[in-house]
Amino acid sequence: MKKIKCYNYKIDKNDFVNAGKVSSEIKKNLKKIGFTNRIIRRIAVISYEGEMNIIIHSEGGEIDFEIYEDKIILKINDKGPGIDDVNLAMTEGYSTAPSEIRELGFGAGMGLPNINNCSDNFNITSSKNGTKIESTICLE
Amino acid sequence: MNIKNMIEKLELDEVTNLSNDIEFENVYIGDLLSVVMSNAKENSIWITIQTHLNIVAVADLIDIAGIIIVEDMEVDKDTIEKANELEIPILTTDKSAYEIACGIYKLEN
Ligand SMILES: Nc1ncnc2c1ncn2[C@@H]1O[C@H](COP(=O)(O)OP(=O)(O)OP(=O)(O)O)[C@@H](O)[C@H]1O
Ligand SMILES: [Mg+2]
């Protein structure tokens, strides 16, 4: 299927000041193109949770956001340190967020499950070199 | 229900500088951002004790109509600036989430 548009956004670790900016950009672009609120909301959740996980848990990374005729793909990749036990990390309520991060409202352990729930197709792989998430939303 | 009307009736303090002439349809209470993200409906009033800048990002992404920060929490300056920029009203009160939720319920019924 033809790729209609793609965007790349870099995300720095610990950048709480700009947190949410990438997701907000993605949302703006989707609105401009005219996607339904339902689709926009799902993608906003996926990108925000992905963005925050890069900021909080990784050494930095990026989100590739690709629009096709029949689907949208988000690739959320970082530079490490990776997730030891991906199955455990995917469990609702599991979080290693430290207390100062929890005080800001993060650390419910719902980010990865939210990404999974909002995706039609979800794939995660992780090694010490980085975590890779690919999330697909079907448009039909 | 209208936010402006609610501010008057519940004696909320405005920390943003916006018209507040916005209709909301729902109310959601929560302090864990991921839980709010997945459950709060659009055009909701969001009641929370969180004050950090991130609440504005979350509210913007899921189309929250306005935020009420309860329990007399001090709101960060960055948070207020960002909320003004994105036109998301932030209101404060010394009351609890429960008292505010009951107050809104009474206004509606
Ligand atoms: N990109 C990542 N790199 C390294 N570890 C990660 C990454 N993303 C998630 N994790 C690990 O998986 C756990 C669960 O992630 P998840 O997003 O579900 O919850 P959380 O980020 O801890 O809290 P929440 O997202 O609800 O604020 C994290 O606490 C962290 O240990
Ligand atoms: Mg997370």
Structure, briefly:
The complex is a heterodimer of chains A (140) and B (109). With 140 residues, chain A is α+β, with helices and mostly antiparallel strands. Chain A has helices at residues 21-33, 37-57, 86-89, 99-102, 111-118, and strands spanning 3-11, 61-68, 71-78, 121-127, 130-138.
Structure description:
- With 140 residues, chain A is an alpha+beta fold.
- Chain A has one domain (3-138): Heat Shock Protein 90.
- In chain A, 36% of the residues lie in helices and 29% in strands.
- Chain A has five helices and five strands, in the order βααββαααββ.
- Chain A has helices at residues 21-33, 37-57, 86-89, 99-102, 111-118, and strands at residues 3-11, 61-68, 71-78, 121-127, 130-138.
- In chain A, strand 2 (61-68) and strand 3 (71-78) form a beta hairpin.
- In chain A, helix 1 (21-33) packs antiparallel against helix 2.
- By secondary structure, chain B is an alpha/beta fold.
- Chain B has one domain: HprK N-terminal domain-like (Udp-n-acetylmuramoylalanyl-d-glutamate--2,6- Diaminopimelate Ligase, Chain: A, domain 1).
- Chain B has helices at residues 3-10, 33-39, 54-61, 77-86, 97-108, and strands at residues 13-14, 26-29, 44-48, 66-69, 90-92.
- In chain B, helix 3 runs parallel beside helix 4.
- The radius of gyration of chain B is 12 Å and the shape is globular.
- Chain B starts with a helix and ends with a helix.
- The mean pLDDT of chain B is 97.
- The interface between A and B is medium-sized, with 26 and 22 residues.
- Residues 49, 52-53, 111 of chain A line the site of magnesium ion.
